[in-house]
Amino acid sequence: MPEHCLWAPSAWIEGRWQQGVLLGIDARGHWSAVTPAVTTPPVGATVLAGPVLPGLVNAHSHAFQRAFAGLAERRERDADDFWSWRDRMYEVALRITPAQLQAVAAQLYAELLCGGYTQSCEFHYLQHREDGRPYDDPATLSWALAEAAQQAGMGLTVLPVLYERAGFSQAALRPDQRRFASTASSVYALYQTIQSAGRSLLNAGVAIHSLRAASREGINALLRRVQDQELPLHIHVAEQTGEVDDCLQATGERPIAWLARERLLDVRWQLVHATHASAGESEAVRASGAGVVLCPATEANLGDGLSELSGWLAARVPLSVGSDSQVSRCWAQELRWLEYGQRLGLRQRNVAAAPALGQGATAARLFDAVLAGSGHAAGLPHWGLRRGARADALVLDTQSAGLLGVPASHTLDALVFATDAPALREVYVAGQRVVAEGRHWQHAPIAQRFAVAMEELWGA
């Protein structure tokens, strides 16, 4: 018997709305049963006030960049691009303290929960003190993130990052990258520390910053330590055309083609962005079983370019989405940007829909695609409204602007394409309610600490 039950008037199960769904929660905070067609709520069940969606994984996040969101939207030189943005972003990376990081991350995680994410993957390359010296405890900044996630009630996957050099032709890091320095040994040791901590809602994987920032020897050394362990392995790849050009010059191959040539890719890999992938590279990704993490709001903000969405969908490559630089913290907005970018580039509508496959609803196809890739990106083998998965759920507010009066069959369409703000009434993580009436349960103390941290970072 389940420890507790939720009853939803409808829930998104196996790609469609199903009515009268009873959701049993066991003592571990996982779904013990998911039973549609239960027309009357059982005695003792918590009756939910609206339709239920599974939560999604935020598959790519740099939490500290929440402190920089909105502060790079002015141009004071002839041109501005990803590389000039990056140099300005380093200002906060060089100053933020563990206490400030915890305050900023807690605010971010509370916002992500209100935006429908219930797990976040932290691509964690901020490792050392402000002057570049190691902390006495190398996991100091990882614990700041873990404490923030625990305070917010968010699931967290920490991905310590291999970061060795400033570029293909540069053997070392730049002075303003001094907090990022790591080796295969330090990355794997940090992974082991986090993974063995036994903290609720916390797990770990590993990451490689990019091919420009990690040597072949370093990558090999990390993979030797990882061996065949089932863990998520993330990498930035082919985000900008400049990166592709540099990789071609240094290796003779495009970035994804190089990974394929070296026979590195497998089902554990998550290729973050993969914006500038050729048709041949897309096929190599499909054949390997690797996933792709798309971050459309950040990619638009940074002027990266448009991913070949139709190709990834047609190849059934596992997809997920990420908040990345934190200019958007809501998955519905990411799905909207994902589709709208394609519409603008192709001058077509409903690009992601596939009526020939019986998937004529754009929002549903996108949502199901990123739902299917979510758990894998975070190293969680079970995900969604299914038995054995963690008991995470989003309860929609059908009285909110954008959903009010919309026919039930079009709820997901309206949520993605006609709703300006998150339309969630409640959010559950591991069976615990962390958002009620659209507000995070720790909103006031988290916001207060965030405001103090921002004043310390930027007030002068």
Q: How would you sum up this structure, described in words?
A:
The chain has 460 residues and is an alpha/beta fold. The protein folds into two domains: 4-54 and 390-444, Urease, subunit C, domain 1, CATH 2.30.40; 56-378, TIM Barrel (Alpha-Beta Barrel), CATH 3.20.20. Helices cover 35% and strands 20% of the residues. The protein has 14 helices and 18 strands. The protein has helices spanning 82-95, 98-114, 140-152, 184-195, 216-226, 241-251, 255-261, 279-288, 296-301, 309-314, 331-346, 362-378, 411-417, 443-458, and strands at residues 4-13, 16-25, 31-35, 46-47, 52-53, 56-61, 117-124, 155-162, 202-204, 206-208, 233-237, 269-273, 291-294, 319-321, 393-396, 424-429, 432-436, 439-440. Strands 6, 7, 8, 9, 10, 11, 12, 13 and 14 form a nine-stranded parallel β-sheet that branches. α2 (98-114) packs parallel to α3 (140-152). The longest helix has 17 residues, at 98-114. The protein is globular and about 65 Å long. 50% of the residues are buried. The model has no long low-confidence stretch (mean pLDDT 96).
